[in-house]
Amino acid sequence: MRVGVLGGSFDPVHVGHLRLAETAYEQAELERVIFVPAGHQWRKADQQMAAAGDRCEMVRLAIAGNPYFEISTLEVEREGPSYSDVTLEALQEESPGAELVFILGEDTLADLPNWHAPERVLELARLAVAGRAGGGGPAASEALPGGLRGRVIWLDMPPVDVSATDIRERVRAGRSIEGLVPEAVRDYIAAEGLYRD
Ligand code: ATP
Q: What dotted CATH number matches 2-161?
């Protein structure tokens, strides 16, 4: 049994995340995909994030009705920084015997050598990676340390040029986010007045 793990700030969750999860589900032959909203994002410490409760609720709205997507709130419930190796260890304990596949975009992959215990992450999971608009794609993995390269599955996914940063800026500027997030997430952002400053 292979289980996908998609970590992120999800500030907010958007169609790029959903395409990424769906593509990994199909191409990495996953039984399910667990979305893991980050608690304290130590790699984005200078960035203000929406409250964990709002980010989790938007993920719940985005995945509702999809039987093989689920959410784990283990990182937001944990004190201190969100380290992926600690998260993967906890998820492995919850699903003994499962093979974990950590799903990420290539921008996050490029940052992996700077993570807490990157070797442990690679022991605990294979990586399923999607290109992002403007990224180098599989060619970029040439820059990765040798050991890492063998653990990476490149997903064949047309780039989805959407980022949470762009969505937050659009909301702040009063512009439309139609089509960039699921309708229920768009309505939630409007109802809660998120990202308006
Ligand atoms: P921000 O713009 O705030 O940095 P983001 O849009 O990159 O956010 P995150 O929640 O940080 O979203 O991303 C979680 C994971 O999803 C990361 O591994 C990231 O690379 C990946 N990801 C996000 N958007 C896309 C996308 N459009 N295509 C492929 N991967 C994506």
A: 3.40.50.620
